[in-house]
């Protein structure tokens, strides 16, 4: 539970949106989403039990071989003088295997290293789950924005249809233009319905992240277009060491060393001791019995295990370097996507969208005066719609890249965004 609380604190500091206070009870912010996921996600809840099972394995590994009690009967149910039980010999004994070479301690160290490895894996899984929840939150927000824009487009198409109808009734445009305008309006309405259905699916998928079977929340509350400027790549690169998979390298190294020491301990003999009491029925006498045994060739039989542990130990640095390079490459790719989206959104907001709005106003006035055709007006309308939708997609690209950077670094991306 303490680990989960730590993740709550870390991830709430890393939110990529400027999140205003909720104005209605059914609104949900990204911070509230992350808290719900960390507290109620079924996979995260199962992690506590996996960690508990690992603690039990450590205790199992520390156990020495148990004492064994035995009862041995001889000279019974035979033939001749041994046909009865007169010559029965019975032996009650205790036996114990003594493991030499600190085998229980070495097994325990291997189990502890595996437990540490599991903790690193669970930390990485938590980051992955939170990143997935953040992306699903973003998808709902994107669809909300798209629906709002398509609704604006529907209203624009409705106005265009009214203008075309007036021109047709005045005999200034052919009837076919009204059919074309009506078709454009109908297509927009269909797209609006499609996006609304997609929104319902996205909302359910988001609710599933915290174990809910229905989307019991209202509109999301976040500013999609609040994009802090990207930090220098070297700053993000330095944080890569906080990634649980990087931290896992040291744990894997300890595990390899523990396995090697455990393999070496196999060279030591395991001595089996046995002692007890033997009863002679024929004379009604008793005597003590003792025995011990050791396996032969323990040293030579241990060599393949030692060799395997050595080879695994030697391969670790190469595998770790390959994984480090893969993480670095993924971080650089996400960083470049974030930089591109940041500059592209500036261009869209400062140049492309205002230009498309001015062009549409000019085409609308020109169409009323007969200077432009309906086809040209429709093209201008579509250009504005596309540029506004591109703004949504570009902002989404930025936030997806930021989510990926935070997942890869395992730390908050410092932006100074107010929460």
UniProtKB/TrEMBL annotation:
Localization per record: Cell outer membrane
Coiled-coil intervals: none
Keyword field: Cell outer membrane, Membrane, Signal, Transmembrane, Transmembrane beta strand, Transport
Top-rank lineage group of the source organism: Bacteria
UniProt xrefs under Pfam families: OEP
Leader sequence segment: 1-21
Cellular component per GO, a single term: cell outer membrane
InterPro entries named among the record's database cross-references: OMP_efflux, TolC-like
Presence of keyword Cell wall biogenesis/degradation: no
Gene3D superfamilies, alphabetized: Outer membrane efflux proteins (OEP)
GO MF annotation: an example: porin activity
Family to which the UniProt record says this protein belongs: Belongs to the outer membrane factor (OMF) (TC 1.B.17) family.
PANTHER family: OUTER MEMBRANE PROTEIN TOLC
Protein name: Cobalt-zinc-cadmium efflux system outer membrane protein
Species of provenance: Thiohalophilus thiocyanatoxydans
Classification of source organism: Bacteria, Pseudomonadati, Pseudomonadota, Gammaproteobacteria, Thiohalomonadales
């Amino acid at each position: 539970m303490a680990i989960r609380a730590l993740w709550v604190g870390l991830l709430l500091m890393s939110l990529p949106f400027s999140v205003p206070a909720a104005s209605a009870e059914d609104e949900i912010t990204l911070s509230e989403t992350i808290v719900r996921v960390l507290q109620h996600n079924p996979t995260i809840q199962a992690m506590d039990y996996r960690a508990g099972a690992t603690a039990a394995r450590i205790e199992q590994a520390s156990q020495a071989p148990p004492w064994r009690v035995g009862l041995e009967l001889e000279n019974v149910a035979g033939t001749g003088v041994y046909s009865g039980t007169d010559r029965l010999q019975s032996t009650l004994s205790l036996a114990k295997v003594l493991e030499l070479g600190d085998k229980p301690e070495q097994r325990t160290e291997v189990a502890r290293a595996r437990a540490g490895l599991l903790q690193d894996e669970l930390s990485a899984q938590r980051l992955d789950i939170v990143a997935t929840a953040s992306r699903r939150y973003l998808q709902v927000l994107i669809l909300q924005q798209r629906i709002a824009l398509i609704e604006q487009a529907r209203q624009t198409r409705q106005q265009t249809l009214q203008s075309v109808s007036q021109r047709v009734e005045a005999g200034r445009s052919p009837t076919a233009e009204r059919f074309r305008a009506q078709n454009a309006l109908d297509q927009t309405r269909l797209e609006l319905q499609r996006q609304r259905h997609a929104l319902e699916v996205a909302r359910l998928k988001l609710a599933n992240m915290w174990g809910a079977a229905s989307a019991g929340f209202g509109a999301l509350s976040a500013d999609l277009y609040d994009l802090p400027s990207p930090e220098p790549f070297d700053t993000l690169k330095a944080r890569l060491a906080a990634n649980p998979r990087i931290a896992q390298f040291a744990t894997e190294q300890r595990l390899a060393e523990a396995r090697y020491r455990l393999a070496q301990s196999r060279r030591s003999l395991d001595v089996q001791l046995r002692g007890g009491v033997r009863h002679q029925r024929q004379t009604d006498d008793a005597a003590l019995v003792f025995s011990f045994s050791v396996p032969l060739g323990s040293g030579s039989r241990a060599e393949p295990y030692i060799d395997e542990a050595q080879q695994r130990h030697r391969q670790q640095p190469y595998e770790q370097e390959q994984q480090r390079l893969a993480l670095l490459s993924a971080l650089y790719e996400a960083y470049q996507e974030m930089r591109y989206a940041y500059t592209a959104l500036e261009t869209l907001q400062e140049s492309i969208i205002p230009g498309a709005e001015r062009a549409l106003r000019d085409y609308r006035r020109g169409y009323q005066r007969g200077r432009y055709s309906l086809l040209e007006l429709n093209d201008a309308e579509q250009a504005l719609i596309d540029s506004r939708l591109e703004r949504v997609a570009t902002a989404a690209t930025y936030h997806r890249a930021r989510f990926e950077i935070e997942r890869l670094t395992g730390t908050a991306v410092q932006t100074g965004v107010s929460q």
